[in-house]
UniProtKB/TrEMBL annotation:
<keyword id="KW-0328">Glycosyltransferase</keyword>
<protein>
    <submittedName>
        <fullName>Polyprenol monophosphomannose synthase</fullName>
    </submittedName>
</protein>
<dbReference type="InterPro" id="IPR039528">
    <property type="entry name" value="DPM1-like"/>
</dbReference>
<keyword id="KW-0808">Transferase</keyword>
<comment type="similarity">
    <text>Belongs to the glycosyltransferase 2 family.</text>
</comment>
<dbReference type="Pfam" id="PF00535">
    <property type="entry name" value="Glycos_transf_2"/>
</dbReference>
<feature type="domain" description="Glycosyltransferase 2-like">
    <location>
        <begin position="6"/>
        <end position="174"/>
    </location>
</feature>
<dbReference type="InterPro" id="IPR001173">
    <property type="entry name" value="Glyco_trans_2-like"/>
</dbReference>
<dbReference type="InterPro" id="IPR029044">
    <property type="entry name" value="Nucleotide-diphossugar_trans"/>
</dbReference>
Length: 242
């Protein structure tokens, strides 16, 4: 996994951060990790700084002044990674809902020609562990809704476990990404689709967090439902900036 970096946004992830750092580095000697922390009051950043001594020149930390949203954290990370000339740029959660062992599958998909590889929960049935049925239906229904509105032929439109080729990210105006919550994932995929990117879905198993608290909220859901419709209308009117 040469020239690869995994971006992990954090906010109050002290229960998970040591384990996820050790897990990624134990699996892959060549990969680097960038953690974007939004001033976690639980001391997440301090734990990361201690690990930077052990993983010098492999583990990087960007600290922001406050909680600004998942989307802006990834945009911050993308800009940093592009400035450092990484070729393969990953998104991954800190809570082990995304299995670090699956990074290699996403990497291989991009190495073999994909511009964007998606770790998909729904490309082969429903591969979700430890979620209540209500949340499975919400997530699966959201992906179906987004697919219907946007006409993207993707099964998991809200997935947050992905690998981008830097060459694709450079085609985006990252300052024009509108969404800050989980709808950010939809916007990025939709704009990649409008750019005629080669998008590949790789089946993975998603496991709900066992430590720490979920960041899901009603505002995030509302942004996704209404924002996607607005985004699609803007694209039809030729007003969507990529």
């Amino acid at each position: 996994m040469k020239k690869s970096i995994v971006i992990i946004p954090t906010y109050n992830e002290k229960e998970n951060i040591s384990l996820i750092i050790e897990s990624v580095f134990s699996l892959y000697q060549e990969v680097h990790v960038l953690i974007v922390d939004d001033n976690s009051p639980d001391g997440t950043a301090t734990i990361i700084e201690n690990y930077q001594i052990k993983y010098a020149n492999r583990l990087f930390l960007e600290k922001r002044e406050g909680k600004q949203g998942l989307g802006t954290a990834y945009i911050h990370g993308f800009k940093w990674a592009l400035g450092q000339e990484y070729e393969f740029i990953f998104e991954m959660d800190a809570d082990f809902s995304h299995n670090p062992a699956d990074l290699i599958q996403l990497y291989k998909a991009c190495e073999q020609g994909a511009d964007l590889a998606i770790g998909s929960r729904y490309v082969k049935g429903v591969n979700v562990v430890n979620w209540p049925m209500s949340r499975i239906l919400l997530s699966y229904g959201a992906s179906k809704y987004v697919r219907w509105i946007t006409r993207m032929q993707l099964h998991d439109t809200t997935a947050g476990f992905v690998c981008y080729k830097a060459s694709l990210l450079r085609k985006f105006n990252l300052n024009k990404i509108k969404f800050v919550g989980y709808a950010f994932q939809i916007e990025m995929k939709f704009k990649a689709w409008l750019l005629n990117a080669k998008i590949v879905e790789v089946p993975v198993i998603f496991t709900d967090r066992s430590r720490g608290n979920s960041k899901m909220s009603g505002g995030i859901i509302s942004e996704a439902v209404f924002g996607v419709l607005k985004m699609k209308i803007s694209s039809l009117l030729g007003k969507l900036e990529i």
